[in-house]
């Protein structure tokens, strides 16, 4: 198996046809077809379905595509690590952010990266945390912001912030607490909309609830912040989330937020990297910048509900 075969296969997948991939790669189509056939023979599996409309991936093809992307990225990172100097890092860095973090961190980080490291191309990807974990394991991400649920870490992790979870619902909702705060017991007894198990804040809520002798029942599971927000505005239920991803609605008065007590619930946000894949100088520089930007946001009060973790 050769790297060019991986590049050819990825190009065919990305462009949806052999002819378009051949044009982009500046390779004759018969030669491209031959390389694809050799790759399939070596793997012992058909990777693509061919038709007059183009190509589509088989199940084996979709699986191999993810591995090919990860391998090509690691090769590019290795070349960049050798070529770049520590004084002037350059190259491409891919950072993964959960949906509920990107609103607070993405734009300030992009602005700081452009000013500090103009020769680094910072690529941000926004996913649910479970997808970020898999991409970081495979090497498709250099870095990812993840949540620490207290379990032994499989990544090299640097603490960033702790965020308090708030009880949030539509203004004027019948679910709104009567007081200035709400107990965790009462919050869990409400109609809650939360991410699915093992996603986002859910593991932390489950862990704190078990320790307090409480349980979660009748949960509506939504993994998208945008859809969850729409459900809150439609008064389908309430949620337990940090303030940041819904701050604009809370400030506008369409949503309201209450602190949770007895006990409080907070999540720890960490910056993670693979223990097995070395960081390039550029990725290391972006990692340090993430920590700097986080400190500045907290000091200025621009990451509501967050405090620096130690």
TrEMBL record:
UniProt protein name: LysR substrate-binding domain-containing protein
The keyword Repeat belongs to this UniProt entry's keyword annotation: no
Family statement drawn from the similarity comment of this UniProt entry: Belongs to the LysR transcriptional regulatory family.
PANTHER family (UniProt xref): NITROGEN ASSIMILATION REGULATORY PROTEIN NAC (PTHR30293:SF0), TRANSCRIPTIONAL REGULATORY PROTEIN NAC-RELATED (PTHR30293)
Keywords linked to the UniProt accession: Activator, DNA-binding, Transcription, Transcription regulation
Residue ranges annotated for the HTH lysR-type domain, each copy included: 1-58
Organism: Massilia terrae
Highest taxon in the source lineage: Bacteria
InterPro entries found in the cross-reference section: LysR_HTH_N (IPR000847), LysR_subst-bd (IPR005119), WH-like_DNA-bd_sf (IPR036388), WH_DNA-bd_sf (IPR036390)
Pfam families, sorted: HTH_1, LysR_substrate
């Amino acid at each position: 198996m050769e790297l060019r075969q991986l590049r050819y296969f990825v190009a065919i997948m990305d462009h949806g046809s052999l002819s378009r991939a051949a044009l982009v790669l500046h390779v004759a189509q018969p030669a491209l077809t031959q390389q694809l056939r050799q790759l399939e023979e070596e793997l012992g599996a058909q990777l693509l379905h061919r038709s007059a409309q183009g190509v589509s991936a088989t199940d084996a093809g979709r699986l191999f595509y993810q591995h090919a992307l990860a391998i090509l990225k690691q090769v590019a990172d290795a070349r960049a690590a050798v070529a770049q100097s520590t004084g002037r890092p350059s190259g491409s860095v891919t950072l993964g952010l959960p949906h509920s973090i990107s609103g607070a961190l993405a734009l300030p980080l992009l602005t700081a990266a452009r000013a500090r490291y103009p020769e680094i191309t910072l690529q941000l990807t926004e996913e649910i945390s479970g997808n970020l974990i898999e991409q970081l394991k495979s090497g498709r991400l250099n870095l990812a912001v993840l949540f620490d649920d207290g379990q032994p870490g499989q990544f090299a992790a640097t603490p960033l912030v702790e965020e308090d979870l708030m009880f949030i619902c539509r203004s004027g909702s019948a679910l709104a607490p009567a007081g200035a705060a709400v107990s965790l017991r009462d919050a869990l007894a409400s109609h809650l909309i939360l991410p699915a198990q093992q996603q986002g804040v859910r593991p932390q809520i489950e862990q704190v609830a078990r320790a307090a002798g409480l349980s979660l029942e009748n949960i509506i599971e939504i993994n998208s912040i945008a859809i969850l927000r729409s459900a809150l505005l439609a008064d389908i239920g309430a949620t337990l989330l940090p303030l940041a991803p819904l701050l604009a609605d809370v400030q506008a008065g369409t949503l309201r937020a209450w602190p949770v007590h007895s006990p409080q619930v907070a999540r720890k946000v960490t910056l993670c990297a693979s223990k097995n894949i070395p960081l390039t100088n550029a990725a290391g520089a972006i990692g340090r910048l993430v920590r700097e930007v986080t400190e500045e946001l907290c000091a200025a009060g621009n990451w509501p509900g967050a405090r620096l973790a130690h």
